[in-house]
Structures are given as structure tokens and as C-alpha cells.
Amino acid sequence: MIKLIQTHLKKKRIQARASVPKQVVMVNKEDIQRKLAEYKPTETNKKANFQGPSINRKEFEGAV
Questions:
Q1: Helix (H), strand (E) counts: the chain
Q2: H or E segment to which residue 2 belongs
Q3: Alpha-carbon distance 21 to 26, whole Å?
Q4: Residue 15 gets which letter from DSSP?
């Protein structure tokens, strides 16, 4: 019975928290443009390596 009451109160607490209005943050268009102007991408010529580290034949045969 105590467990039932505890879960009921927990659900009520979660519902009360969900009903609280969220804060809305206003962002100026000028702020976004200023941040984008400051942004400079680094090393755009690097490509992602999805194969992982490469091992040569001698290393592979030596490991076996």
C-alpha cells in the first residue's frame, strides 16, 4: 500500500514539473551573424578515415 502511494505521489510530482512553462530565450539575428562571422573552420582538407589503422603485411604476419 505504501508503495502504491509513493508511486502515485511520484507521478503527480512528474506531472507538476511537466506543466511548468519552459523559459524562452530570445536570440537576436545580429548575435547569430556575429558568431558566424567569428567562426573559422580548421583543416577542411582532412578526410575521415573509417577503415581504422592500417597494418602492413610484415606486421600482420609477425603477429600471427
A1: 3, 0
A2: helix 2-19
A3: 15
A4: H
